Amino acid sequence: MNARNLTLGTIVVLVATAAFIATFGFRDPGIERTGPAFLPRLYTGALILLGLALALSRRPSTDAGGAPARSLVGMAIVAVYVAALPWLGFVLSTLLLAPSMLAYVGMRSPWVLILLPLGLVGFIQLFFTVLLGIEVLPGQLWQ
Amino acid sequence: MLEMLGQGLVLAMQWQVLLFLLLGVVVGIIVGSLPGLTSTMGVALLLPLTFAMEAATGILFLIGVYFGSMYGGSVTAILINTPGSPAAAATVLDGYPMTRKGEAYKALQISTLCSSIGGFISVLVLILVAPQLAAFALRFSAPETFALALFGLSIISTLSSGSMVKGLISGFAGLLLATIGLDPISGITRFSGDSLHLLGGISFIAVMIGLFAMSEVFRMMEGSSAVRAATGQMVKSVKDKAGLSWKEFKSLIVTLLRSTGIGTGIGMIPGAGADVAAFVAYNEAKRFDKDPESFGKGSLKGVAAPEAANNSLTGGAMVPLLTLGIPGDAVTAVLLGALLVQGLQPGPMLFENNGPLVYTLFIGMLLANVLIFVIGWSCIRLFTRILSVPIGLMIPVILVLCVVGAYALNNQFFDVIVMLLAGMLGYAMKRYDFPVAPLVLGMILGPMMESNLRRALIMSQGSLDIFYTRPVTAVLLLLALATLLSPLFRWLRTRRR
After folding, report:
1. Number of H helices, E strands in chain A
2. Which of A97, A101, A125 to mutate: most B Cβ within 10 Å?
3. Tally of domains within chain A
4. Are both A35 and A88 inside the same structural domain?
5. Chain A interface, best mutation among B172, B224, B411, by max A CB count within 10 A
6. What is the ipTM score, two decimals?
7. What contacts B428, CB < 8 A, 6 or more positions away?
8. What are the pLDDT digits (tens) for B7-34?
9. What is the pLDDT of residues A4-50, one digit of tens each?
């Protein structure tokens, strides 16, 4: 047995089992032979079987390589940016995020750190707001 | 017909008609290439601009946006693994591997050629045999649509080239995610708890943006040697500009024609969109190919098939709209609105009452495909310059476009959160070798399959006879079975050798 397959397969089985149990909470109005829970139960049942097959698989699992820690930090930065959007709004959040992200991935030129965020925000505002009439993520503190 | 075609040609050649058609195609290509902005959204948002225009000018402007956006989605799909629209989700499968192999230039040439030729042929079909085809399309009822969706889903078996178990897990996870929200038949809630946001289900476009584009951003952040090597190769391709040879193009002609037929046919069926057409065409290209193993690794036919199919769908979708006044999908519903605003009533009488105008639209549609070729072909060099941009600069640009695209879908912040979570899931899936395409396919086809299966069973009062007594349904179900079993046949054939 392969430890990584065992872990991944167990996660699939647990999530699918939880979803399978949740289907018993669906109210069936009884207007048809297959109720609203029919296909979700079929899918979760298949997922449980497939999860078991993966957990018991001897096939060597592959890892894409690279440094996941760097990606995890990046995910955290993006999560903070997304969390700030409803308060600061798109323009301000992006003007703060883009230089931080650029600095994080190794960009040091002050021109890039200033001009890229401005250009990006300008393009989005021009295309979405002016041409298409979509107001992009207004914030509570700054619109 | 020839007389009206001549009158239509004269009307279509007016400078303002041509100018707005060109503008529509350009705007459509930009809309299509931006993640989250779909053809429907582009056409709907620009509809009010056409109210003050002449009928032919306004409608052809919107048709330009529609056709252009179908092609535009492939550009970012090929270059940065980010399908601009759901229709380009299948193009990613071989388009991006071609870019990573240093063949971005060639991939864009194939996409441009196949999109424009596929679209052109489908409009010719529309002009020549629209009424007959419309009658056939109307015979598609719930059992046939269910069988078509199941046939589309059977592609999961061919998309799971690495590990079949992981591919199936991905596909069933997509199907399960698609059941979140209100049940399509009874209207009761499923898996949504007390969340109002989940009542309408999870937007598959937000998930698609996250799985393909956001996960790629997270992968780029790793700064691994594999990513650097791939980037170096991609940049090399910009310098090499190794183009498509005549021999290579000749090898694509059968795939191009087959996929055009699939796209046009699926376009006429109400409810089946360009994403379905692209995946079905991709699967058929792989099934008929002598070297199916090359698919997913940068196959030329893997780019040609979905691109020809999604653009040829546009002509097919116009068949029921113009001949019967029935819109087959959301974008043609908006176009129906545009026709009505201009005082035109689509249906059998449209050809009688407004013959010259209808033929002006036909000529305009042909021209739109020519313009896609001219603009697309002349901009390939410009598009590939994206690859010369350092990864560090690409990361915030893609990230911000993902966020704005997800938000623009419904003007809801919730979709941004879904996109981010899908990005994290996609990153983990890629890291542990789970294919992401089956999940997207499950989310696209799941609702179509479920609602039509249950409608069919209500029609037949619970009897399964309905699935094998109707010829089209039976054929599609047999094809689905053959596709599902094809990996098994391949394995048996390999063992026998």
Report:
1. 4, 0
2. A101
3. 2
4. no
5. B172
6. 0.91
7. none
8. 888 888 888 889 999 999 999 998 888 8
9. 889 999 999 999 999 999 999 988 777 777 889 999 999 999 999 99
